[in-house]
Specification:
- The chain is 61% helix and 0% strand.
C-alpha cells in the first residue's frame, strides 16, 4: 500500500524550470533584454569597432556600385548621368540576342577561360611540387620570392615588359631582323593573342598560386613519406601516391573557385 505524504515528508524539487517559467522567443525583445544587449555591445565596443572598416569596404565598393546597374535599362551617357539618361527598358537586353558580335565574344571568353584552367591552373601545382623537392631552405625561399614577384606587378607593367620582348620593336623581332628575317610582332597578331594571354597569366599568377599548394603539402603527415621510403617507393611514386592525394581537397576547392571567373577571365 502506497505511503501517504505528510507535512514532514521531503519533496524533491526538479532542477529543471517549469514550462511556465521558460521564456518564449518573443520575450527576448523585452526592454530588459535590449538593455542587456546594449550593455554587452558597449562592453565589447572595440571588437565591434574593428568591424567598421570591413563593413565600409563592402558598403562602398560592393553594395553602393550596385545602384549603377540602372544604366543597363537606360541609353546611358556619361555626360547626362543616371538621372537624365533616357530610359529604354529591356532594349539593351534584347539586343544581345540579335547582335552577331555577342556570340563571338562569349565564345572567345569561354575558350580563354578553358585554356587558363587547362594550362595555367596545373602550373601552380607543378611549381609547388618542384619547390617542395628543393632541399636547401635558403635556395627554396629565394626561388619562392622570385616566383611571387610577378604577382605584385600591374598588368600595365606586365604588358610593357612583354612588349619589350615580343613586340614589333622588341628583342625577338630585332633578333630576327638582324639575321635577315622580317620583323615579327606577336602581341598584335590575332593568331597569337590567346597563347600570349595564357603565357602572361602563367608568368604572373602561377607563383602566387603555389602558396596554397605548399601549405597543403606541409600539412601531410611525414610518417607517410617514411613508410613509403621503407617500402622502396621512389620520388615519383611518393609524389603520385602521397602528395597529390594529400592536396586533392585544396586542388578541387581552388578549381571550383576558379570556375567563378569563367565569364570575367580574371579581368574586371
Amino acid at each position: 500500500m502506497a505511503e501517504k505524504l505528510t507535512a514532514s515528508t521531503p519533496v524533491q524539487v526538479s532542477k529543471f524550470p517549469r514550462p511556465s517559467t521558460v521564456h518564449p522567443p518573443g520575450r527576448l525583445s523585452s526592454p530588459k533584454s535590449k538593455r542587456l544587449l546594449l550593455r554587452i555591445m558597449w562592453r565589447e565596443r572595440w571588437v565591434y569597432a574593428m568591424l567598421i572598416p570591413g563593413l565600409l569596404y563592402f558598403l562602398i565598393f560592393h553594395y553602393l556600385p550596385l545602384l549603377g546597374n540602372i544604366a543597363a535599362f537606360q541609353d546611358y551617357s556619361p555626360f547626362l548621368g543616371f538621372f537624365r539618361s533616357p530610359w529604354v527598358g529591356f532594349t539593351n537586353f534584347t539586343s544581345l540576342f540579335v547582335d552577331p558580335d555577342v556570340i563571338a565574344v562569349v565564345r572567345n571568353t569561354l575558350i580563354i577561360s578553358l585554356l587558363q584552367i587547362v594550362f595555367a591552373f596545373p602550373v601552380g601545382i607543378i611549381l609547388a611540387l618542384l619547390l617542395n623537392a628543393i632541399i636547401s631552405e635558403r635556395f627554396k625561399r629565394i626561388m619562392q620570392s622570385v616566383l611571387y614577384l610577378p604577382h605584385f606587378l600591374g598588368w600595365v607593367i606586365i604588358i610593357s615588359i612583354w612588349q619589350q620582348i615580343f613586340g614589333g620593336d622588341g628583342f625577338i623581332s630585332n633578333l630576327i631582323t638582324s639575321t635577315g628575317g622580317k620583323p615579327l610582332d606577336l602581341l598584335t597578331d590575332p593568331d597569337f593573342f590567346k597563347p600570349m594571354l595564357i603565357l602572361q597569366v602563367i608568368w604572373k599568377e602561377s607563383g602566387w598560386s603555389t602558396i596554397m599548394f605548399l601549405a597543403a603539402i606541409v600539412g601531410i603527415n611525414f610518417q607517410l613519406y617514411e613508410a613509403a621510403v621503407v617500402n622502396g617507393a621512389g620520388q615519383w611514386r611518393r609524389h603520385w601516391h602521397i602528395i597529390l592525394p594529400g592536396i586533392s581537397n585544396i586542388v578541387v576547392l581552388l578549381l571550383i573557385l576558379s570556375l567563378g571567373n569563367v565569364l570575367s577571365v580574371g579581368f574586371e
